[in-house]
Amino acid sequence: MIPLYINSTETYSGKTMLTLGLGMRFKRDGYRLGYLKPLGWLPVTVDGEVADQDAVFMKKALDLEESLDQICPVVMTQDLIERVYEGKEGDFGQKIMETFRRFYQDKDVVLVGGAGSLFEGGFIGARGVDLAAAMDAKILLVDLFRNGITTIDSFLYAREILKERLIGGVINRVRPEKMEYVRKKVLPFLLQREVDILGVIPDDRTLGAVSVRHLANILCGSVVCGEQRLEELVEGFMVGAMSPEHALQHFQRRKNIAVITGGDRPDIQLAALETAVKGIILTGGFRPNDIIISRAMERGVPLIMVELDTFSVVQRFEEMLGRLELREERKVERAKELVERIIDFPLLYRKLGLSPAPRS
């Protein structure tokens, strides 16, 4: 059994995308696959039980046989955190390792999903770097690209701490204009210092987008109309706070956007409905008038009514957009395609001691 710990230099770097793509490839090549998420930070309720959102997603996407509590043995609810503060709960590292030893020994490969960084979890005795050592796991590190120096420093620091346990890295979300720089400058520099980069993944609009349905849920919004188009993906947003003439010009310049405007601005709403917007978020708790609803139904544009003010909605949009949350099927397929095409699987398999050829 070979554990591969997938972690990152910071949160929302693309661990889920990479884990999903790797898992699909390992299964395609005939390996018995396991997925373990030691710490879950996204609690949800499934059949009356608390589970981790990533565990729910991976169980379905990778067709895992383990139960949700076996996939993620520790879910960080607010209640649990409070008990830790009060000294009523302590070392969860032992519980995680018991789960690992009990349910995953018959696997060929176990993908271990890390938290926000290698050092998270220390306050409950479950720091990622310590768990990786206890599992004798190899570590693959994902870096969210910002600039070359930061990426280099992150990998060199990880190499210094992890030593031979670090088998390499993946650089994610590199903008097109930076790709040549990364390939010609960053990769050779890291290779000279014994850090192998197994793939450079470009910034991808589809993966950074979010569905209209997800937006409505996060904003606690009511869908007025357009239910049939809630799976459309939104890549950005614009605020309608100008004159209708200027608004129309601005909306026409952008693709795959949602428009945020006051529910009491029918002039802006009509302007938005003359363009190819993916949805309109109506703030302030104002219900649109019948003319707006009728026009939106004709155009197939979802109208989402929310109680929040425009500024609060913009804040939540900015928090969501760009996070690589793989909940929509199109994003799952895109992640699979990118990982399959870009990751150096022959090198990865050599480092793990696996045969790259599919097994019977």
How would you sum up this structure, described in words?
With 360 residues, the chain is α/β, with parallel strands linked by helices. It has 2 domains: 2-207 and 324-352, Rossmann fold (3-Layer(aba) Sandwich), CATH 3.40.50; 210-320, 3-Layer(aba) Sandwich (Udp-n-acetylmuramoylalanyl-d-glutamate--2,6- Diaminopimelate Ligase, Chain: A, domain 1), CATH 3.40.1390. It has 16 helices and 17 strands. The protein has helices spanning 15-28, 53-61, 68-71, 78-85, 93-103, 128-135, 148-162, 176-192, 205-208, 212-218, 244-253, 266-273, 290-299, 310-320, 329-342, 345-352; strands at 2-8, 33-36, 39-40, 43-46, 49-52, 74-75, 109-113, 138-144, 166-174, 197-202, 210-211, 222-225, 233-234, 236-239, 257-262, 279-283, 303-305. The strands form 5 sheets. The protein has a 6-stranded parallel β-sheet, sandwiched between helices. Helix 7 (148-162) packs parallel to helix 8 (176-192) and helix 12 (266-273) runs parallel beside helix 13 (290-299). The protein is globular. The chain starts with a strand and ends in an 8-residue tail after the last helix.
